[in-house]
Specification:
By secondary structure, this protein is mainly beta. About 0% of the residues lie in helices and about 50% in strands. Strands 2, 4, 5, 6, 9, 10 and 11 form a 7-stranded mixed β-sheet that branches. A 4-stranded antiparallel β-sheet has the order 1-3-8-7, with no helix packed on it. The termini are far apart.
């Protein structure tokens, strides 16, 4: 059974940092590109970033470039999203997802999703 479980969300002040984790099970992480997406209330889902199977190729959404970093540890079956210089506009539910194939920002090409973790940036 394929499972993706996000953790690490919470309340953080503007300018602060958080690191999200996505623990996967039920499949071999090495074989898949992984992505992070987010959705704020009343807004469409937004691409955050994507990382290929061995971490050599990364792609980020324009709104997070230079502030967020994706990494992965295939041996630990975990993907990470380091978020720095957070602003209130980063407030959203963050999701990790699995994609067979190359890095992509097209959410509909990801075939499995986690339940999400809430990130709230507020003073």
């Amino acid at each position: 059974q394929v499972q993706l479980v996000e953790s690490g969300g919470g309340l953080v002040q503007p300018g602060g940092s958080l690191r999200l984790s996505c623990a996967v099970s039920g499949f071999t992480l090495d074989y898949y590109t992984m992505g992070w997406f987010r959705q704020a209330p009343g807004k469409e889902r937004e691409f955050v970033g994507s990382i290929d199977w061995n971490g050599d190729v990364l792609e980020y959404g324009n709104s997070v470039k230079g502030r967020f970093t994706i990494s992965r540890d295939n041996a630990k079956n975990t993907v990470y999203l380091q978020m720095d210089s957070l602003t209130p506009e980063d407030t959203a539910v963050y999701y990790c997802a699995r994609r067979p194939g190359y890095v992509s920002g097209r959410g509909w090409t990801y075939d499995s999703w986690g339940q999400g973790t809430q990130v709230t940036v507020s003073s």
